[in-house]
Fold this protein.
Amino acid sequence: MGPSIHQQTCTCECSVWFHQTVDVTSSLTQLQLIQIELAKDYLVNKHQYVVVAGIISPVNDCYATKKYLAPSKHRCEMVKRALKPLNGQQHWVHLDNWECLQTKWTRTLEVLKHYHSTLNINQNSSTATSSDTVSLKLLCGADLFETFNVPNLWKDSDIEEIISNYGLVVITRKGSDPWKTLKNSPKSHIFAKYEVTENDRLKNCF
């Protein structure tokens, strides 16, 4: 596991949100599912969170990428099949196609805001006496995390709000260096404000 970046550590219910694109040659992989399980274990064991759900949100068809992006209906179907119930047990991770259904590509921060609002509306309606707030984390690979340094791709204000209001859980991968992004990059001044923890046992798993 790479860095976990957040404003403070607390005990609360938490839904891990995993933003993932599926291209024409690959569906949701076993490694990506393991990634989500590792993130859950990390939050539960390291920070005493109660993880209530995982959300996979395939990117909108209008997302600008040099790679061929399969139509969202096919990418969603691949995710559904990967998450089929096993032995009658529903997977704790589920697909949400809200992002795909928008008429244009939606910035990551806006997608997080939507899911956070929806989760807490559902939480309050299901337990009328509960005042607990479900928090949300963005789970990503180090390759996505390093795109924070790509000029004109991410707004500094978006990065700041994602970290301060939600938090990041980053899985390291071979060939990636999220610590460089944290400590020696044009965005270092943003990350320096927040608490960063690391799980050495899971470092460089991917």
